[in-house]
Amino acid sequence: MIPLDDPRLTAMGLLAEVHTGLMAKMAGAFAESKLSDIDFETLIRLGRSPGHRLRMSDLAAQTSLSTSGVTRVVDRLEREGLVRRVACASDRRASYATLTGEGLTRLESVIPKHIEDIDRWFTGLLAPDQLDTLLDALRVIRDVVRPCATAGAEQEVGIS
């Protein structure tokens, strides 16, 4: 008989419940800024990258999107003036998604409320040592299950 009280099942269930609950708590701040969760994820990854830009392939690797999915998101954000594409000077096949000034302003408009929500519903519930332990554990797991999650985070050259 399979042990239904296996702590590995409990860990996975808790992680899923926490993720779903946190995303529901964060949705209001995104909606107030007229962003979906994937819009926010795209903008924050660009905003936290060197030069506020990433190769399209690296952006896809960092997000939960396929390359065609990230193309659709960037197309929409570009129409809204939040992102623009920049050709790569050293590789004609590649392009970069670059955060615009308007995109940075929109991102900055949601960050205070988002940080408040994170503190209220997540990190503020943990003691500093618990948070450090959690961050270390999450990085170990992330680096195994999503090794490309930090793709393009190093400074890129050859952008025109």
TrEMBL record:
Residues 5-143 form the HTH marR-type domain. The keyword DNA-binding applies. It comes from the Bacteria. One of its GO terms (biological process) is response to stress. The keyword Nucleotide-binding does not apply. SUPFAM superfamilies: Winged helix' DNA-binding domain (SSF46785). Keywords: DNA-binding. One of its GO terms (molecular function) is DNA-binding transcription factor activity. Pfam families: MarR_2 (PF12802). PANTHER family: MARR FAMILY REGULATORY PROTEIN (PTHR33164:SF99), TRANSCRIPTIONAL REGULATOR, MARR FAMILY (PTHR33164). This is DNA-binding MarR family transcriptional regulator.
